[in-house]
Every structure is written in structure tokens, then in C-alpha cells.
Amino acid sequence: MFSLHIDTARTWRGGQNQALLTVLGLRTLGHRTVLVCHPEGELRRRAQDSGSVVPLAPRTEMDFSAAWRLARIIRQEQPEVVHAHDPHGVAMASVALAVGRLPRPPIFVASRRVDFRLKENAFSRWKHRRVDAFLCASEAIRQLLLASGVEPGRAVTVHEGIDIEHVDAVPEGDPHGEFWLPHHAPIVGNIAALVAHKGQRYLVEAAHLVVQQVPDARFLIVGEGELRPLLEQMIRKQHLEKHVLLTGFRPDPLALLKAFDVFVMSSLTEGLGTSLLDAMACHKPIVATTSGGIPEVVVEGDTGFLVPPRDPAALADRTIRLLRREDLRAAFAQAGRQRVEQRFSAEQMVAATLAAYADVARVSRSLSS
After folding, report:
1. Burial of 350 (C-beta count, 10 Å sphere; 0-12/13-18/19+)
2. How far is 367 from 297, CA to CA, in rounded Å?
3. Which of 47, 187, 263, 322 could cross-link to 284 by cystine, CB 3.0-4.6 Å?
4. Helices 64-77 and 87-99 sit at what angle, rounded to 10 degrees?
């Protein structure tokens, strides 16, 4: 099946990684793909040696010039599927397909990776009506789409996946040496953009409670974003400069992740949480919130602990419990690795994506016949 994929983001986050894994996975199975991505984006840099890549991105959500260019690409390539992986990509593809005068319009699918309802403005309603099927990163997202009025037949759950072989191939880093940490200090880690919905402010509050019980504990928060000034202020105010470190953005944070003793996700909203999958693949016990699709990944009391969002006391309590129980960390780590292998590999994600394409194509043919 020939598919054209669109991701317009300039930055590199979980969604861009999923788009690349999808494209590479389809190519591995012998399917032709074209990737349309930001000319100056990290996705283009990582994908440029792997096949057909077209540099194109809209300046705004309603960039009709970019949409016209995309329409020409679709007319020229004639893909069977157009798959938009981000909101601006959905907008650009919607306009392109509407104005493209295509003799054989492709089926149009859109990935949905955020756990909040669709916007209610007129343009949002128009573009989302044009989508033949939403591929939801979690069942929690699918239920939100249904609550937004999307018909059940237009929303399918396709859990995100990770490249387990890549995870295994990355050597473990040395954060103790890099950040001058005490040699035997246990490390609690978080990997996420520093934005409000990732909840790191509650993780800093939890760290303040943890170090009162486990003074040697160190927290590494890996990522960059608009929340950094607030987090720095909180760290100074609570005298945590030696205990909580903001590492900044890392192109591939797996090396640090492999050195963590406990992985914590403090998100207030979360579609699924691929960093959780990475952590479980790296045999790390988890403490996470119950937000969004996280409970579809983390099994309470089996692969980790789940706590309510915005509850630093609960976050601290479960973290302390894991830091004090090596046997529990080992049990969670083993169960987490098994769960990722069984349910969240990139190969399983690509297979489910292909099945969704086929189902949508079958429905489309039956409606047109």
C-alpha cells in the first residue's frame, strides 16, 4: 500500500518519533511511502537518508499556499493513503484534498495523540469531518473523540510503539560522572518537555518530600521548554539545587534513562506516554499518574505505581517505597519489559496501522460501489 505521511513540526517529540517509526516500519514491510515534513525540522534530518522525503510545512494552520503545494504533490504521487500525524498536517491535508481535484481521492487518516477533545471552531469542525479515520494512540483518546461526536467507525485505537532493538543497542550513560552526583546516589528520572501539562512542578514538590526520607536521592528532569524558569525558581526556593537537576534537551535520552533507578511521569494530561514505554523496555520501575492513556501502559502493582495527577505527596510516597525496596524495583522492571515486548513494539504499531488502512479502504470501496 502506498501512503503519504505528513508531520509539520519543527521540534522533535514523541509524535515525530512515531511518524518516523511508522514510515520506516512500512518501508521495511515493502510498502512505498513518502514523508512530507518541516524543511528545517529534526524529523527531516533523521529521515533524509531513509527514502523519499519532501520538505514542506505551513506557516499557519490556514496556509493555503502550502496546501496548494501539497495538493500538487498528491496529484503527482497518487498515494492510496494520506496520513497526517499532527494538527497542522491535518489542516494542510484537508485543504489540499478539498481543492486538489483528484481523480481518485486517497483515504485520509489522522493520528490523534493528545487526550483532549477536538476544538469546536468552524475550521476545526470542517477539517475533522474530512478525516476518514482517526488513529488514536490510546483507548482513552478514542473515548474522548467519541464524546466529541466522532462516529465509532471513524475512530480506532492503535497503541504507539517503540523500536526495542534501538533501545537495547544504546549503551548506558554515566550521569553520576556527568553531573557530579554522589557515587551511590539513587537516581529518579523524568523525560518530557518542560510544559505545564507534563506536571514537573509537582515532581519538584515531590522531590522535596523524597529527599527528607532518602537524602541521597537525586532527580534528573530531562527536557526543555517554557516551564524551565518556574522549575528553577521552585528548586532554589526549596533548596534543592543539589538534588534536582534540569539537564536540558537530549536528542536521544536513552543513555541517561538506562542509568535511572526509578522513572517518574508526573503528567496532568497524556495521550499514552512513549517515554514510559522506553523506560519499561529499559527495565525501569514506574511511578506515574492516572492521566489519559497512562493506565493502558502501566499496570498498578505489577509494572509500577499509579497516583492521581497534581498529588506530590502520593508521587513522593510511591517513589520512596521503590527506592527502599530493591526487590520491588526488580519485579516491576521485569514485568514492564515483558509488557512492552508483548504489546507495544513498533512492529505491532505498524501492523495495526496497516490493518486500519485496509479497513478504511474497504469501507470506502463499499460506500462508492
Report:
1. buried
2. 36
3. 263
4. 70
- What is the share, in percent, of the chain residues with pLDDT greater than 70? 98
Question: What's at 344, amino acid-wise?
Answer: F
pLDDT digits (tens, 9 = 90+) for 135-188: 999 999 999 999 999 999 999 999 999 999 999 999 999 999 999 999 999 999
pLDDT tens for each residue of 218-259: 999 999 999 999 999 999 999 999 999 999 998 889 999 999
**Cα–Cα distance for residue pair 325/95, rounded to 1 Å:** 55
CB neighbour list of residue 186: distance below 8 Å, 6 or more residues apart: 214, 216, 217, 218, 261, 262, 323
- pLDDT band with cut points at 50, 70 and 90 for residue 99: confident
Cell digits of residue 300: 498498578
Does the pLDDT value for residue 100 go beyond 80?
no
CATH code at 3-161+346-368: 3.40.50.2000
Q: Please give the C-alpha separations between residue 353 and each of 134, 192, 278, in angstroms, as whole numbers.
A: 11, 25, 20
Residues with Cβ within 8 Å of residue 345, at least 6 apart in sequence = 161, 162, 163, 164
The cell for 176 is 553520576
Place of cell 483518546: 141
- If we measure between CA atoms, which residue out of 194, 209, 203 comes closest to residue 288? 203
Burial class (CB in 10 A: 0-12, 13-18, 19+), 52: middle
Domain segments of the chain: what residues? 3-161+346-368, 165-343
CATH of domain 165-343: 3.40.50.2000
Closest CA to 34 of 100, 99, 93: 93
Q: Do domains 3-161+346-368 and 165-343 have the same CATH topology?
A: yes
- Per-residue confidence (pLDDT) for residue 365, from 0 to 100: 64
C-beta separation of 271 from 87 below 8 A? no
Helix axis angle, 87-99 to 122-129, nearest 10°: 70
Are 190 and 221 within 8 A, CB to CB? yes
